[in-house]
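PROTOCOL LOG
Step 1. Enter all chains and additional molecules of the complex.
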Amino acid sequence: MDFLNAIVALANYVLIPATAYGAQLALGALGVTLIYGILRFSNFAHGDTMAFGTMVTILFTWWFQSMGLHFGPLPTALLALPFGIAVTAVLLLGTDRLVFRFYRKKKSDPVILTIVSLGVMFIYNGLVRFVIGVGDQQFLDGERFVISARGFKDATGLDEALALKTTQVLTVVVAVLVVGALFWFLNRTRTGKSMRAFSDNEDLALLSGINPDKVVAVTWIIVAGLVTVAGVLYGLDKSFKPFTYFQLLLPIFAAAIVGGLGNPLGAIAGGFVIAFSEVTITYAWKKVVTYILPDSLAPDGLVQLLTTDYKFAVSFVILIIVLLFRPTGIFKGQSA
Amino acid sequence: MKTSMRTPLLFVAVAALFILEGSTNWWIFSGSWTAALGILNMALLSAIMALGVNMQWGYAGLFNTGIMGFAALGGLATVLVGTQPTAGAFPWELGADGLPQGGWRILMGLAFGALTIAAAIFAQRRLPKGRMRGLSTLAIIVVGFFVYRWIFDGGVELVEKINPATSGNIGGLGLPIIVSWPVGGLFAAAAAWVIGKTALGLRSDYLAIATLGIAEIIIAVLKNEDWLARGVKNIIGLPRPVAYEVNLQADPAFVERAANWGLDPATASTIWVKLSYSVLFAAVLIVVMVGAQLALNSPWGRMMRAIRDNETAAEAMGKNVTRRHLHIFIIGSAVCGIAGAMATTMDGVLNPGAYQPLRYTFLIWVMVIVGGSGNNWGAVLGGFLIWWLWNAVEPLGIWLSNILTVGLPDGNWFKTSMQDAAAHFRLFTMGIILLVVLRFSPRGLIPEK
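Step 2. Run joint prediction.
Step 3. Record the structure below.
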């Protein structure tokens, strides 16, 4: 019985939250990795793009809610998501046309493009503050739980409760669908294949008649989709605050680099590596340990390796370890 | 325009902005000398930081996005050097378990932690390659971590119990606060050494991500380690290197002199204090500037630029690129640390929550790029100009929104939203400026020769 309790506690506090967080990071890291693979620079505006996409979706959600439009037990934000993606895609394509294209045609050094993305970051950040302000925004509605803590206790008779939030299930389901669609697109369609060719060897791709402008445009549209979905799922699961999204830049980049920059499969693996290490290292293990060990060995402290405030330190340390021992990431990325 | 005239003219133009700021309240200027001096002091600090970043980026092409962290380490130095020691934080008696207590135990824990990392690195380097090496390194780290926590946590517990409402931290050395400026530089240099050792020699954006991360971690440490500098409870009332306003106002000689100038004692004392800071900061800026110019024009500076422009060629000439990069990274970060210590000294408060990456890291980048990367005069000019602009953007936004909404009644939705939006105008404008300069004048206002 105690063993079961331990497993339930572990699932409730570590496995489920980390899986959801990992899926969100993986979607964010996929965006970073695609931009890196095709446009060949590290986009510092990624976190703020995420905030922008989420903001647009929130605005549409509020509008739908005010019209009395709901999505049954699911959050209304899902209905608003396509509109959020569309507006974000327009923004990204516009930015590319006005800002990034110039440096791409000039074949500027990647680090210059990264600095340019700092300017874009400032502008997006200002834009989000203009429209929605800096405060916390809640936009979750619909059914809150798939399995509620009380219902689980009543059904199983265990001491430990297990709660499964709708947003957590939703995150995983949506992430699987999106990633599936992305891989199908990259591996099966003509445009997807030309994107991979462009990423592997730009010169050969150009030589074989691939239109670079189309590849770049499609990349930005896909990135808009990934980034908005990631941001909305994160916002539904936790809450939306522009500065938190800016800070997500670090775990997202860590995930992309750990997996191997430029490698989509690596980005997904990296997302989960980062999420699971963050949650396990900052979780207070007292409860689980008390169930497993005999009473005489029960710990006094919280058995917490680091407080949750140091979660960035975890992604950072993993990043450093990977950089030291395997600079190309777990899966081989493009970076040397 | 001849290029030789360009630099002095630009500096005169920026100086005119500051003089207008103090003397007239026409258009967007505040017309208050106190405000103008306040902006000038931060501009001086920004110029020093911009010089530090320019060494890294302009001389060597290193992309450091952790300026905020180095500045915060400087801020920490002011507390550890300038504040009075906390009574009882470093007790001489041994504890019940035979170990030293309080601050000593914390130091012991930190030393043990450093030793663990060193042992792990040693094991990784010296043991023969294979599964045994990985396992023993892991064992050293895991065992070391738990022993470290045991030693360290015991010390923290005692220190945080001392008078938690007012102190609860290890306190400082009680030295003059100016001493903390070079110490802040040393702290930043030490952090830069650790980052440089790991992330230099890899691709340039990896350094950017690594420094971005370390800056967040430094802020997290300052916020959470209450024994160090009281965390988010903030340290207030740091000692000052200059006079206090109240003392000046109580001094009859000062009041009389102020009256001769036609100023009331309150304004005169504020201006006097700010002016004292300006003189101190300007002195540091001049020292750093002279050093930077001498270094840039020395054989060492030529070597750095040669490495920046063509690493492969420089390496072929026998230059150790990674080592040179490490040096310049440490020096530039130390300069940022010094400026950070100076900023906290002027505020008189260490508030870890006030460190924002957009303000402390990316704004400095705008200064360097706009001023002219690779040119020290450019970095200084960028520091002054962009900091003035950062402050002027808000009144500018209000002015602009007043023009756009002229004739509309009060309470009109467009007017209200425009007035609210003026406050968020800053980041937007900085982004536009950065992009415009990068596009149309990528070498900045004062380009490198």
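Step 4. Note key features.
The interface with chain B takes residues 41-42, 44, 99, 102, 110-112, 114-116, 118-127, 129-130, 246-247, 249-250, 253-254, 257, 305, 307, 309-310, 312-313, 315-316, 319-320, 323-324, 327, 335-336 of chain A (CB under 8 Å).
Strands of chain A lie at 145-147, 164-165.
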